[in-house]
Amino acid sequence: SATAQVDSLSKRVKDAEGHIEVIEDKERRFDKLAAAHEVLKEEVVGLQRTREEQAQSIAALTESLRDSGSKSNDLEQKVLNLSIDKDYLERSLKEAQVRADRSETQALQLEDEKRGLERRRSEAVEQLMENQRHAQADYDRRLQEEVGRMRAEAEASTQVAQKAMRDAAERETTTLKELNAEYQRERDHWRLRSEELGSQME
């Protein structure tokens, strides 16, 4: 029936709207992950820059030891400390690089998924608009049908009323004719009766 079709279209519209909300929520989460990935890349760049600076410091201190021709305990300790820091920094950098690589892979996957979500969202929006157009068209059709039905009923009622009025007028005319004929008969009867009485009196 038309009502069932409208209900079905309304449900499809609501389903499409819900699907779009889910897609947009996923897109927001992907944007947050992408932002975290950018932060991680900046961390790797910072560690690489620090590593380069420490390598330069170690090289400078080593050169100073070589130029002085003596073994300064203080310089040796600084070199040792920097070497330890360098080892720690290398490990931290490797770990950060692993995380960055993993994040890069995940970011690429998420980007593919996001493109898929954007495509599905576009399709869902188009479907929503199509459902709304169908719902509006169905509503307009039902409205026209209802207006047509009411107009037909009104015309039928008018015709019935007009026929009833004609029938009543015809009955009234017939009744008046019958009354007039009865009146004529009565008048003729009494006229004849009066003439008869007049003849008898003569």
UniProtKB/TrEMBL annotation:
Entries under InterPro entries matching the protein: PIBF1
Membrane-crossing residue ranges in chain numbering: none
Region: Disordered, residue numbers: 100-119, 147-202
Coiled coil: 6-43
GO cellular component: microtubule organizing center
Keywords: Coiled coil
GO biological processes: cilium assembly
Comp. bias (Basic and acidic residues): 164-196
Classification via PANTHER family: PROGESTERONE IMMUNOMODULATORY BINDING FACTOR 1 (PTHR18950:SF0), PROGESTERONE-INDUCED BLOCKING FACTOR 1 (PTHR18950)
Protein name (database record): Uncharacterized protein
Source organism of this protein record: Pinguiococcus pyrenoidosus
